[in-house]
Design a protein that fits this description.
- The complex is a heterodimer of chains A (about 475) and B (about 350).
- Residues about 450-464 of chain A have low confidence and may be disordered.
- In chain A, the strands form three sheets. Chain A has a five-stranded antiparallel β-sheet with strand order 1-2-4-5-3, sandwiched between helices.
- The longest helix of chain A has 30 residues, at about 265-295.
- Chain A contains 16 helices and twelve strands.
- Chain A has helices at about 1-10, 40-60, 65-70, 85-90, 135-145, 180-190, 200-205, 225-230, 265-295, 305-310, 320-340, 345-365, 370-380, 390-410, 410-425, 445-450, and strands at about 15-25, 25-35, 80, 95-100, 100-105, 150-160, 165-170, 220, 235-240, 245-250, 430, 430-435.
- With about 475 residues, chain A is α+β, with helices and mostly antiparallel strands.
- Chain A has three domains: about 1-105, no CATH class; about 135-250, no CATH class; about 265-425, no CATH class.
- Chain B has two domains: about 25-200, no CATH class; about 210-355, GMP Synthetase, Chain A, domain 3 (2-Layer Sandwich), CATH 3.30.300.
- Chain B has nine helices and 13 strands.
- In chain B, strand 8 and strand 9 form a beta hairpin.
- The model of chain B has no long low-confidence stretch (mean pLDDT about 85).
- Classes of the chains: A alpha+beta (about 475), B alpha/beta (about 350).
- Chains A and B meet through helix 10 and helix 14 of A and helix 1, strand 1 and strand 2 of B.
Chain lengths: ~475, ~350
């Protein structure tokens, strides 16, 4: 067979490619695997043992390798494949047996993935603490064990001409919006790229209609979130070698929802949701409002506060906008540095940040204490929204509104607010309005609203 | 893209309008306006914040308020900030000359017009803003003083700037001013609110003392509760009045002032036995008579001095415009021809603890 010659030729630039010849009298069976991705233990225990037993004791000519394997090798999955698929299966950790014209691929994948651990970017207090890892089948398994329903459908595709990454589109067939599903599948099928290393690559490639910075596709590490989204009629996309799963479509209200809300009393959930909305306002508008109150609209401050602010800023040599920018940029640098710092060095960075932004800058007269408080409040409020893309939107608008407030005071903030709302209202998430439940308001049964919180998805027939 | 460039360009052109750093401002908290020989003499109390809060008092002179404040800006070397003005204190000459000093505050866009207006006698005008320089200044102290007085004693009545404008421009009502005095107590000078001052059309000063002040506030609905001492036999008792409501009625050329209130006895030294219902009714009757007499005294002051600070004319103007030609005639001359009837109805709701 040509494939064998091809394999031998490949050995030159693939040193981990192993080709073993096992003789049965005059017959030869080729056992081929790639050492780095297949498990030698499985290969030895099941395949080579079986072959050596057969050669020692029986030494008979068998008509069909496949038939023989069915009779003699217990519980190992195998598949008969074509010549053109050999390399693909080898790269996926399969051990290939070639005998005459038969090519059988045995699943002997090496465990190159980490075990199921706690989610790193979405900490949980109550609720399940397992998270996705880079193993495709494990991820599917984590979802399957939560949704034991035959209506959980999976559509598998392969993307990336070089990476040949497996993609799985998951949905509940009885409740998903079929138009949305078809649209999503068509978009994914249209992807022409050489690599898909993570679900983020897919996210960028299918989200054409959304030209704004607001994220309309969410990703998560948590299987319980995915299970909840699927039961709400959403579509989830998994990818090989990725521990993030995409949820389509995502709306503005989804970013105010946390899985922890499911495990607490509804009264407290409501309270926390309003705190989150307040935190969003604070993190976007607080620096701008402070700037406007100290440079344009001082008459809005009570006299005592005005005297206090004036006293605090008396030694600062910079205008308020420069002072604010210094602190905000320092905060951004610390924020990014913290994300890239190993845990062992995180403590020293925190101390440095506290010293730089806190005591030292105030004592040196570079910034005023009230400005440090404003920036700190802004930073703390932004922690509520851990999702990276949402953070980007918050940061951009924060700076934009700061600049508008510096130019026009409160009027500028109002302009910024109107622009933000208009922008939000104009976005569509896969054909659905991004501000759904706010605009348009969905009239639902009050009980269901209270039960599900702000997000309302019709679990009856996928009608969003 | 083009639209974005135009928008950004337009925004940049607008940049800088009204931009001012907070520490380049000098906050004017109080102002005393005096007028003499066609000149304004303004004493301003300002709050400066450089390392520490300092209260400073500057005197400036000019033909207009604008000129005086420009001079003040030069003295303090900063931009003036008038939005936090708490008090304006007027002297007799300012009020008598009826200058249009209000015009400056009505025109200035930064003026919030939420300050209060007071009167001060000439002998205290140099001291009034110079007291309390160590704390937040006299102006803020006066504001607290009025709030406290109004809440507890109700003898003085606050006059906001907008109320002043209303009373000056409206028909049938004259303004009266709370009076500031400086008292000496234990070698220390203290600001004090005492009496209410008004000026009639002949520029004569009319004084309502603290007792009159309480009843004035009662009939003009400026207070909800107060406490008064009423004599009975040779002793007296104190009654706390709550839910004071005064209503006016103009009917058949008689102006009715109806006062309705609830009372609670807070101290009692009279001889009537409070066990019996008749005694309670008698007490109620004594209270009614006392309040009525005092209100009548105030009405007499208003009528005799031809100054309608109660607002009788204004009520008639709003409810019976045809009765009097307010535009062309002087209402204060007509005031003595009006029949004014006072009715008081006090309900004693509680007689307190009875001690044997």
């Amino acid at each position: 067979m040509n494939i064998i010659n091809e394999l031998y030729n490949s050995k030159e630039h693939m040193p981990d490619l192993q080709i073993k010849e096992v003789y049965f009298g005059m017959n030869k069976i080729f056992v081929i695997n790639i050492q780095s991705v297949s498990s030698s233990e499985q290969s030895n225990n099941f395949i080579l043992n079986y072959l050596s037993d057969r050669s020692l004791f029986k030494n008979e000519i068998f008509s069909s390798l496949k038939k023989d394997i069915c009779n003699y090798i217990p519980s190992i999955s195998f598949i008969e494949i074509k010549e053109s698929d050999v390399f693909n299966y080898l790269f996926n950790g399969f051990t290939i047996l070639i005998y005459k014209n038969e090519i059988i691929a045995f699943e002997t994948k090496a465990l190159l993935d980490r075990s199921i651990s706690e989610p790193s970017s979405e900490p949980t207090i109550k609720g399940p603490k397992d998270s996705f890892n880079e193993n495709y089948n494990t991820n599917i398994g984590l979802i399957r064990k939560r949704i034991k329903d035959k209506n959980l459908y999976m559509n598998e595709l392969t993307l990336g001409s070089k990476t040949n990454t497996k993609i799985c589109i998951m949905y509940m067939n009885d409740i998903v919006d079929k138009d949305l599903l078809n649209d999503t599948i068509n978009k994914i099928k249209e992807i022409k790229t050489d690599k898909i290393l993570d679900t983020y690559y897919i996210k960028e490639l299918i989200n054409h209609e959304n030209k704004s910075i607001f994220p309309t596709i969410k990703s998560t590490e948590k299987p319980d979130t995915i299970a909840k989204s699927l039961t709400e009629g959403k579509i989830c996309i998994l990818s090989e070698n990725s521990n993030n799963v995409l949820i389509i479509p995502t709306f503005f209200v989804d970013y105010f929802y946390n899985d922890e809300d499911n495990y607490q009393k509804s009264f407290f959930t409501y309270f926390v949701k309003y705190i989150r909305i307040l935190a969003l306002y604070i993190t976007i508008f607080a620096p701008a409002i402070y700037l406007s109150l100290t440079t344009y609209d001082q008459q809005m401050l009570p006299t005592d506060l005005l005297i206090n602010f004036s006293l605090q800023r008396s030694n600062v040599p910079f205008p308020a906008i420069v002072e604010l920018l210094i602190l905000m940029i320092t905060f951004e640098i610390l924020y990014e540095a913290d994300a890239l710092t190993p845990t062992s060095r995180g403590t020293s960075l925190s101390i440095l940040g506290a010293l730089v932004l806190g005591d030292a800058a105030v004592s040196a007269g570079i910034v005023s204490p009230i400005m440090v408080i404003v920036v700190a409040l802004t930073a703390i409020s932004s922690i509520f929204f851990s999702y990276q893309d949402f953070q980007s939107f918050i940061r951009l608008y924060r700076y934009l509104i700061m600049i508008l407030s510096c130019i026009l005071g409160m009027i500028g903030i109002l302009f910024g607010f109107i622009f933000l709302i208009t922008n939000l209202c104009s976005i569509k998430s896969f054909g659905k309005p991004f501000l759904i439940t706010f605009s348009p308001i969905i009239h639902k049964n009050k009980k269901e609203l209270i039960k599900n919180g702000l997000l309302t998805q019709n679990t009856n027939k996928g009608d969003i | 893209m083009k639209k974005l460039i135009i928008v950004i360009f337009s925004i940049l052109i607008l940049y800088g309008c009204d931009y001012i750093e907070i520490n380049n401002l000098v906050i004017i908290s109080g102002m005393l306006i005096d007028y003499k020989d066609n000149n304004y003499y303004i004493t301003s109390q300002i709050i400066e914040n450089e390392n520490e809060t300092k209260i400073k008092v500057y005197k400036t002179k000019g033909v207009s308020i604008e000129e005086c404040l420009t001079e003040l800006s030069k003295l303090s070397n900063k931009d003036l900030f008038i939005s936090h003005l708490k008090v304006i204190i007027l002297t007799e000459s300012t009020i008598k000359n009826k200058n249009d000093y209000q015009d400056y505050f009505l025109r200035d866009s930064k003026s919030k017009m939420n300050f209060y207006v007071y009167y001060v006698d000439d002998k205290y005008k140099d001291e009034v803003l110079n007291i309390y320089k160590d704390n937040k200044g006299s102006a803020l102290y006066i504001k607290d003083l009025m709030e406290f007085n109004n809440k507890i004693f109700s003898s003085s009545t606050p006059l906001s700037f907008l109320d002043l404008i209303y009373k000056q421009k409206e028909y049938g009502i004259d303004e009266i001013y709370p009076n500031l005095v400086v008292k000496e107590n234990n070698g220390e000078k203290v600001l004090y609110l005492q009496n209410i001052i008004g000026f009639n059309q002949n520029k004569e000063k009319i004084i309502l003392d603290d007792k009159d002040g309480i009843f004035y506030n009662m009939i003009t609905n400026n207070i909800q509760k107060t406490s008064i001492n009423i004599p009975c036999d040779n002793k007296d008792f104190t009654i706390s009045l709550n839910d004071i409501k005064t209503s006016y009625k103009w009917n058949n050329n008689i102006f009715n002032i109806n006062v309705k209130t609830n009372g609670k006895l807070s101290s009692y030294e009279c001889s009537y036995n409070l066990d019996s219902v008749n005694s309670t009714k008698k007490i109620s009757s004594i209270v009614n008579t006392f309040i009525k007499r005092n209100i009548n005294d105030i009405v007499k002051i208003s009528v005799n001095n031809k100054i309608d600070f109660i607002g009788i004319g204004n009520y008639i103007y709003r409810h019976d415009t045809d009765y009097f030609n307010f535009k062309n005639n002087n209402w204060n001359n007509k005031l003595d021809k009006i029949k004014i009837k006072v009715n008081v109805d006090t309900t004693i709701t509680s007689i307190g603890e009875m001690r044997k």
